[in-house]
Write a structure and sequence with these properties.
Strand content: 15-25%
CATH class of the largest domain: Alpha Beta
Order of helices and strands: HHHHHHHEHEHEEHEHEE
CATH architecture of the largest domain: 3-Layer(aba) Sandwich
Number of strands: 7
Structural class: alpha/beta
Radius of gyration: 19 Å
CATH superfamily of the largest domain: Vaccinia Virus protein VP39
Distance between the termini: 59 Å
Length: 313
């Protein structure tokens, strides 16, 4: 039997070290990751080399275990929740209070969770598709001297990635987690974009911007974590100039322990956006490899939208 090479020419040393760790410690996860890189070598390298390098700067040598173990724990949780969802037919939790104690107020769990989510940005093939769409449909169309608001910025990876691909655009991120704000600030420094990225502590749903509206906005994988995601959409519509572009993502029939709002179709997302001040311009629905034994097909949808300039457009 021929063993496929595990070194990829496009992958930098830090990312390769992480891949070697996952291959050795979590071989059950490795086959899918290896196939992903084989199909998307340049796209994978474009984001993984950046993101892993930033994590290495933030953590030092321990980045390998933190990202690798975080990804493995997160993947285990996702698979368990999805199987349970298939049987139950609905998400386990329906409110923020339901998940706060076991998830958001559990520091050990959140350590694995946050960095597991971070790693899926490049380790999951359908998330690579989201990243590609993000660059082509959103980042490449930002105004060189414009400003962007990100609501629910988390680790700040999306703003830092966008800033690393632009020259003069500035980014402001808002997140309800003080630790996430600290991480986002650190990662933007590692990326060399901290002069154009500012992360602030605050509730995204209560954000009030003083002064002129932003030129553009984004919010990635927050909608499904909210009891009323339409509030987030309205807040973005209020914060961005009419006609300004907004990038949003949402999970559809994808169960995770802290997913609250259950979107059943891409149409559910579109309808919510268009009834709360936005006009959908482009949409990408990306899914992992389908398993016909599963009742639900988990997928991620990314949308490029514009703030409506009239009630109808």
């Amino acid at each position: 039997m021929t063993i496929a090479p595990t070194h990829f020419e496009t992958v930098g040393a830090e990312a390769q070290t992480l891949l070697d760790y996952i291959r050795d410690e979590y071989p059950a996860s490795w086959r899918i990751i290896e196939a992903n890189i084989g199909r998307n070598p340049h796209l994978f390298a474009d984001i993984a080399n950046r993101a892993v390098g930033w994590a290495s700067s933030h953590f030092g040598p321990s980045y390998v275990q933190i990202l690798g173990d975080g990804y493995a724990h997160f993947l285990t949780d996702v698979n368990r929740e999805q199987l349970s969802y298939d049987k139950r037919g609905s998400y386990r939790n329906r409110s923020y209070d339901d998940v706060y104690k076991d998830v958001y107020d559990n520091d050990q769990y959140m350590q694995y969770y946050n960095w597991g989510v971070f790693a899926t940005t490049f380790l999951w093939e359908h998330h690579l598709r989201i990243y590609q769409f993000f660059i082509q449909a959103f980042v490449n169309h930002l105004q060189p001297d414009g400003n962007v608001i990100e609501l629910g910025s988390g680790s700040g990876i999306w703003s830092s990635l966008a800033a690393s691909k632009t020259s003069g655009t500035t980014f402001t991120g808002i997140d309800i987690s003080k630790s996430a704000v600290a991480v986002a600030t650190s990662l933007s420094q590692a990326a060399g974009v901290d002069s154009r990225c500012t992360f602030k502590f605050g509730n995204a749903l209560e954000f009030v911007h003083e002064g002129e509206r932003f030129n553009a906005g984004l919010s990635c994988f927050l909608m499904e974590h909210l009891e009323a995601p339409q509030m987030l959409i309205r807040k973005l519509a209020e914060s961005v100039v009419p006609g300004g572009i907004i990038f949003l993502t949402a999970a559809i029939t994808a169960a995770e322990v802290d997913h609250i709002y259950e979107f059943r179709s891409e149409g559910d997302v579109v309808a919510m956006l268009e009834s709360n001040g936005l006009r959908v311009v482009k949409l990408l629905s990306a899914t992992p490899q389908a398993d016909v034994r599963r009742r639900f097909l988990p997928r991620s949808v990314a949308v490029l939208a514009q703030v409506k300039q009239t009630a109808e457009w």
